[in-house]
Protein backbone atom coordinates (compact mmCIF):
# COMPACT_ATOMS: atom_id res chain seq x y z
CA UNK A 1 0.00 0.00 0.00
CA UNK A 2 2.64 2.52 1.06
CA UNK A 3 5.79 0.95 -0.43
CA UNK A 4 6.11 3.29 -3.43
CA UNK A 5 5.22 6.47 -1.58
CA UNK A 6 7.78 9.27 -1.09
CA UNK A 7 7.16 11.62 1.82
CA UNK A 8 7.71 15.39 1.69
CA UNK A 9 9.81 16.47 4.66
CA UNK A 10 7.78 18.32 7.30
CA UNK A 11 4.41 17.59 5.63
CA UNK A 12 1.99 14.63 5.72
CA UNK A 13 1.93 14.49 1.90
CA UNK A 14 3.37 11.68 -0.20
CA UNK A 15 4.03 11.21 -3.91
CA UNK A 16 3.40 8.23 -6.11
CA UNK A 17 4.49 8.61 -9.76
CA UNK A 18 4.46 12.36 -9.28
CA UNK A 19 0.87 12.28 -7.91
CA UNK A 20 0.54 14.14 -4.56
CA UNK A 21 -1.30 11.82 -2.17
CA UNK A 22 -2.81 13.07 1.08
CA UNK A 23 -5.78 10.70 1.58
CA UNK A 24 -5.87 6.91 1.33
CA UNK A 25 -8.85 4.56 1.02
CA UNK A 26 -8.70 0.93 2.19
CA UNK A 27 -11.13 -1.96 2.09
CA UNK A 28 -10.54 -4.99 4.26
CA UNK A 29 -11.41 -7.12 7.25
CA UNK A 30 -10.78 -6.06 10.85
CA UNK A 31 -8.57 -8.68 12.47
CA UNK A 32 -7.63 -6.93 15.74
CA UNK A 33 -8.76 -4.02 17.93
CA UNK A 34 -6.53 -2.37 20.56
CA UNK A 35 -7.30 0.51 22.89
CA UNK A 36 -4.49 2.45 24.60
CA UNK A 37 -3.69 6.01 25.61
CA UNK A 38 -7.08 7.37 24.57
CA UNK A 39 -6.92 5.91 21.05
CA UNK A 40 -8.33 2.87 19.26
CA UNK A 41 -6.26 1.00 16.69
CA UNK A 42 -7.82 -1.36 14.13
CA UNK A 43 -5.59 -3.87 12.34
CA UNK A 44 -6.95 -4.17 8.79
CA UNK A 45 -6.24 -6.99 6.32
CA UNK A 46 -6.76 -5.67 2.78
CA UNK A 47 -5.31 -8.79 1.06
CA UNK A 48 -2.09 -6.92 0.17
CA UNK A 49 0.05 -9.20 2.32
CA UNK A 50 0.61 -6.63 5.11
CA UNK A 51 -1.75 -5.80 7.96
CA UNK A 52 -2.31 -2.05 8.15
CA UNK A 53 -3.09 -0.17 11.37
CA UNK A 54 -5.90 2.40 11.32
CA UNK A 55 -6.29 4.58 14.42
CA UNK A 56 -8.70 7.19 15.75
CA UNK A 57 -9.33 9.03 19.00
CA UNK A 58 -11.74 7.52 21.48
CA UNK A 59 -14.58 9.57 22.95
CA UNK A 60 -13.95 10.71 26.52
CA UNK A 61 -15.97 8.71 29.04
CA UNK A 62 -16.32 9.59 32.75
CA UNK A 63 -14.28 7.37 35.08
CA UNK A 64 -16.47 5.67 37.73
CA UNK A 65 -13.53 5.32 40.15
CA UNK A 66 -12.95 8.08 42.72
CA UNK A 67 -10.17 10.53 42.03
CA UNK A 68 -8.08 9.42 45.04
CA UNK A 69 -7.90 5.84 43.74
CA UNK A 70 -6.45 6.79 40.38
CA UNK A 71 -2.76 5.97 40.03
CA UNK A 72 -1.01 8.05 37.37
CA UNK A 73 0.76 5.90 34.78
CA UNK A 74 3.58 7.28 32.69
CA UNK A 75 2.91 6.79 29.02
CA UNK A 76 5.50 5.00 26.88
CA UNK A 77 7.41 7.36 24.61
CA UNK A 78 8.66 6.34 21.16
CA UNK A 79 12.39 5.76 20.82
CA UNK A 80 13.04 5.72 17.05
CA UNK A 81 13.07 9.47 16.39
CA UNK A 82 9.25 9.73 16.33
CA UNK A 83 8.77 11.61 19.60
CA UNK A 84 7.70 14.69 17.67
CA UNK A 85 4.99 12.69 15.89
CA UNK A 86 3.85 11.15 19.17
CA UNK A 87 3.67 14.51 20.96
CA UNK A 88 1.37 16.09 18.37
CA UNK A 89 -1.99 17.20 19.67
CA UNK A 90 -4.55 14.49 19.09
CA UNK A 91 -7.56 15.54 16.98
CA UNK A 92 -10.95 15.33 18.67
CA UNK A 93 -12.95 12.17 17.89
CA UNK A 94 -15.55 12.33 15.14
CA UNK A 95 -19.00 11.60 16.62
CA UNK A 96 -20.18 10.24 13.24
CA UNK A 97 -17.72 7.31 13.28
CA UNK A 98 -19.52 4.02 14.04
CA UNK A 99 -16.81 2.79 16.40
CA UNK A 100 -19.14 0.70 18.55
CA UNK A 101 -20.50 -1.18 15.53
CA UNK A 102 -17.08 -2.32 14.33
CA UNK A 103 -15.88 -5.65 15.66
CA UNK A 104 -13.36 -8.29 14.68
CA UNK A 105 -14.41 -9.81 11.35
CA UNK A 106 -16.26 -6.71 10.16
CA UNK A 107 -15.54 -5.63 6.56
CA UNK A 108 -15.02 -1.88 6.43
CA UNK A 109 -14.02 0.83 3.95
CA UNK A 110 -11.69 3.33 5.61
CA UNK A 111 -10.58 6.76 4.39
CA UNK A 112 -7.86 8.78 6.12
CA UNK A 113 -4.45 10.37 6.02
CA UNK A 114 -1.03 8.77 6.40
CA UNK A 115 0.91 9.29 9.62
CA UNK A 116 4.08 7.91 11.21
CA UNK A 117 4.21 6.14 14.58
CA UNK A 118 7.37 4.42 15.81
CA UNK A 119 8.77 4.44 12.30
CA UNK A 120 5.69 2.71 10.83
CA UNK A 121 3.04 4.17 8.56
CA UNK A 122 -0.54 3.99 9.69
CA UNK A 123 -3.90 5.51 8.71
CA UNK A 124 -5.58 8.27 10.70
CA UNK A 125 -9.27 7.48 10.24
CA UNK A 126 -11.50 10.26 8.91
CA UNK A 127 -14.40 8.19 7.59
CA UNK A 128 -15.52 4.56 8.12
CA UNK A 129 -18.21 2.67 6.24
CA UNK A 130 -19.29 -0.83 7.18
CA UNK A 131 -19.79 -3.09 4.13
CA UNK A 132 -22.74 -5.38 4.68
CA UNK A 133 -22.21 -7.76 1.74
CA UNK A 134 -19.57 -9.24 -0.52
CA UNK A 135 -21.01 -7.36 -3.53
CA UNK A 136 -20.16 -4.05 -1.91
CA UNK A 137 -16.63 -5.27 -1.15
CA UNK A 138 -16.12 -6.40 -4.77
CA UNK A 139 -17.48 -3.06 -6.02
CA UNK A 140 -14.91 -1.24 -3.88
CA UNK A 141 -12.15 -3.46 -5.30
CA UNK A 142 -13.26 -2.61 -8.83
CA UNK A 143 -13.25 1.11 -8.03
CA UNK A 144 -9.73 0.82 -6.63
CA UNK A 145 -8.57 -1.07 -9.74
CA UNK A 146 -10.05 1.52 -12.12
CA UNK A 147 -8.56 4.37 -10.09
CA UNK A 148 -5.16 2.68 -10.09
CA UNK A 149 -5.26 1.97 -13.86
CA UNK A 150 -6.67 5.29 -15.10
CA UNK A 151 -5.33 7.83 -12.58
CA UNK A 152 -2.55 6.72 -10.25
CA UNK A 153 -0.97 4.25 -12.70
CA UNK A 154 -0.17 7.08 -15.16
CA UNK A 155 2.60 9.54 -14.38
CA UNK A 156 1.28 13.02 -13.70
CA UNK A 157 3.14 15.48 -15.94
CA UNK A 158 2.26 19.15 -16.05
CA UNK A 159 2.41 21.15 -19.27
CA UNK A 160 4.24 24.47 -19.42
CA UNK A 161 0.97 26.39 -19.22
CA UNK A 162 -0.14 24.39 -16.16
CA UNK A 163 3.29 24.95 -14.59
CA UNK A 164 2.95 28.70 -15.15
CA UNK A 165 -0.55 28.62 -13.64
CA UNK A 166 0.68 26.64 -10.63
CA UNK A 167 3.65 28.97 -10.23
CA UNK A 168 1.39 32.05 -10.36
CA UNK A 169 -0.98 30.45 -7.91
CA UNK A 170 1.91 29.60 -5.60
CA UNK A 171 3.24 33.19 -5.85
CA UNK A 172 -0.23 34.53 -5.03
CA UNK A 173 -0.43 32.25 -2.02
CA UNK A 174 3.04 33.33 -0.92
CA UNK A 175 2.12 37.01 -1.25
CA UNK A 176 -1.11 36.43 0.60
CA UNK A 177 0.74 34.57 3.37
CA UNK A 178 3.29 37.38 3.54
CA UNK A 179 0.54 39.99 3.78
CA UNK A 180 -1.19 38.00 6.51
CA UNK A 181 2.12 37.66 8.33
CA UNK A 182 2.79 41.39 8.04
CA UNK A 183 -0.76 42.10 9.18
CA UNK A 184 -0.24 39.87 12.21
CA UNK A 185 3.02 41.64 12.93
CA UNK A 186 1.27 44.99 12.62
CA UNK A 187 -1.47 43.88 14.99
CA UNK A 188 1.11 42.60 17.47
CA UNK A 189 3.04 45.84 17.15
CA UNK A 190 -0.14 47.85 17.74
CA UNK A 191 -0.95 45.72 20.79
CA UNK A 192 2.57 46.23 22.10
CA UNK A 193 2.32 49.97 21.46
CA UNK A 194 -0.99 50.08 23.31
CA UNK A 195 0.59 48.23 26.21
CA UNK A 196 3.53 50.62 26.17
CA UNK A 197 1.15 53.59 26.07
CA UNK A 198 -0.77 52.14 29.00
CA UNK A 199 2.45 51.68 30.93
CA UNK A 200 3.58 55.20 30.05
CA UNK A 201 0.23 56.64 31.11
CA UNK A 202 0.48 54.74 34.39
CA UNK A 203 3.99 56.03 34.93
CA UNK A 204 2.85 59.53 34.00
CA UNK A 205 -0.02 59.37 36.45
CA UNK A 206 2.33 58.21 39.21
CA UNK A 207 4.84 60.89 38.25
CA UNK A 208 2.34 63.75 38.36
CA UNK A 209 2.64 63.96 42.15
CA UNK A 210 6.35 64.66 41.99
CA UNK A 211 6.13 66.84 38.87
CA UNK A 212 5.70 70.07 40.86
CA UNK A 213 8.73 69.35 43.03
CA UNK A 214 10.76 68.53 39.93
CA UNK A 215 9.69 71.80 38.31
CA UNK A 216 10.61 73.79 41.41
CA UNK A 217 13.92 71.99 41.64
CA UNK A 218 14.53 72.73 37.99
CA UNK A 219 13.74 76.40 38.46
CA UNK A 220 16.08 76.61 41.44
CA UNK A 221 18.79 74.94 39.43
CA UNK A 222 18.21 77.35 36.57
CA UNK A 223 18.41 80.37 38.90
CA UNK A 224 21.56 78.98 40.47
CA UNK A 225 23.03 78.41 37.02
CA UNK A 226 22.15 81.97 36.00
CA UNK A 227 23.79 83.35 39.12
CA UNK A 228 26.88 81.28 38.48
CA UNK A 229 26.97 82.55 34.91
CA UNK A 230 26.66 86.13 36.08
CA UNK A 231 29.40 85.58 38.65
CA UNK A 232 31.63 84.10 35.97
CA UNK A 233 30.93 87.05 33.67
CA UNK A 234 31.79 89.50 36.46
CA UNK A 235 35.03 87.65 37.17
CA UNK A 236 35.89 87.68 33.49
CA UNK A 237 35.17 91.46 33.35
CA UNK A 238 37.37 92.04 36.36
CA UNK A 239 40.14 90.00 34.82
CA UNK A 240 39.88 91.98 31.61
CA UNK A 241 40.02 95.27 33.53
CA UNK A 242 43.04 94.03 35.52
CA UNK A 243 44.82 93.05 32.31
CA UNK A 244 44.05 96.45 30.75
CA UNK A 245 45.40 98.24 33.83
CA UNK A 246 48.56 96.15 33.71
CA UNK A 247 48.96 96.91 30.03
CA UNK A 248 48.50 100.64 30.62
CA UNK A 249 50.95 100.50 33.52
CA UNK A 250 53.54 98.70 31.41
CA UNK A 251 53.07 101.18 28.58
CA UNK A 252 53.44 104.13 31.01
CA UNK A 253 56.58 102.67 32.56
CA UNK A 254 58.09 102.03 29.15
CA UNK A 255 57.35 105.61 28.07
CA UNK A 256 58.75 106.95 31.34
CA UNK A 257 61.91 104.91 30.92
CA UNK A 258 62.32 106.16 27.38
CA UNK A 259 61.74 109.74 28.45
CA UNK A 260 64.29 109.41 31.26
CA UNK A 261 66.80 107.84 28.94
CA UNK A 262 66.30 110.64 26.46
CA UNK A 263 66.66 113.16 29.25
CA UNK A 264 69.88 111.51 30.41
CA UNK A 265 71.25 111.55 26.93
CA UNK A 266 70.27 115.17 26.45
CA UNK A 267 71.82 116.13 29.82
CA UNK A 268 74.96 114.24 28.95
CA UNK A 269 75.23 115.95 25.61
CA UNK A 270 74.68 119.37 27.21
CA UNK A 271 77.27 118.63 29.87
CA UNK A 272 79.71 117.46 27.24
CA UNK A 273 79.09 120.66 25.29
CA UNK A 274 79.66 122.71 28.39
CA UNK A 275 82.80 120.77 29.13
CA UNK A 276 84.05 121.32 25.62
CA UNK A 277 83.32 125.04 25.86
CA UNK A 278 85.02 125.09 29.24
CA UNK A 279 88.00 123.32 27.81
CA UNK A 280 88.19 125.73 24.95
CA UNK A 281 87.93 128.66 27.30
CA UNK A 282 90.49 127.21 29.64
CA UNK A 283 92.71 126.48 26.72
CA UNK A 284 92.67 130.13 25.59
CA UNK A 285 93.40 131.42 29.07
CA UNK A 286 96.38 129.11 29.42
CA UNK A 287 97.71 130.28 26.16
CA UNK A 288 97.36 133.90 27.28
CA UNK A 289 98.96 133.05 30.59
CA UNK A 290 101.88 131.48 28.82
CA UNK A 291 102.20 134.29 26.33
CA UNK A 292 102.09 137.13 28.85
CA UNK A 293 105.30 136.14 30.68
CA UNK A 294 107.07 135.65 27.48
CA UNK A 295 106.17 139.17 26.40
CA UNK A 296 107.23 140.50 29.73
CA UNK A 297 110.41 138.61 29.65
CA UNK A 298 111.12 139.83 26.16
CA UNK A 299 110.59 143.38 27.32
CA UNK A 300 112.79 142.88 30.30
CA UNK A 301 115.42 141.33 28.14
CA UNK A 302 115.22 144.34 25.84
CA UNK A 303 115.73 146.65 28.80
CA UNK A 304 118.72 144.67 29.96
CA UNK A 305 120.12 144.75 26.47
CA UNK A 306 119.70 148.52 26.36
CA UNK A 307 121.49 148.90 29.59
CA UNK A 308 124.23 146.68 28.37
CA UNK A 309 123.71 144.14 31.08
TrEMBL record:
GO terms for cellular component: chromosome, telomeric region. It is found in: Chromosome, Telomere. Gene3D superfamilies: Nucleic acid-binding proteins. Keywords: Chromosome, Telomere. The keyword Cell inner membrane does not apply. Residues 179-210, 224-309 are annotated as: Disordered. Residues 179-203, 224-261, 269-282 have a biased composition (Basic and acidic residues). Residues 11-57 form the CST complex subunit Stn1 N-terminal domain. It comes from the Eukaryota. Its main location: nucleus. This is CST complex subunit Stn1 N-terminal domain-containing protein. It comes from Scytalidium lignicola.
Amino acid sequence: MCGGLCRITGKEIYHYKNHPIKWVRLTGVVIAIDDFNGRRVYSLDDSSGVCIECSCALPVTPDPLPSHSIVPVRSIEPVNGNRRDAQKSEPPPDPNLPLESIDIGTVVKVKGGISMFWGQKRIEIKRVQILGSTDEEVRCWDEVGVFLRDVVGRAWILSEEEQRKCRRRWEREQRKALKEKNAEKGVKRMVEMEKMKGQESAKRSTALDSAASRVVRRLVEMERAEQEEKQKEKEKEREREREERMKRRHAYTEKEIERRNEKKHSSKSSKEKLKEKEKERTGNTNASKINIPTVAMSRIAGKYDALGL
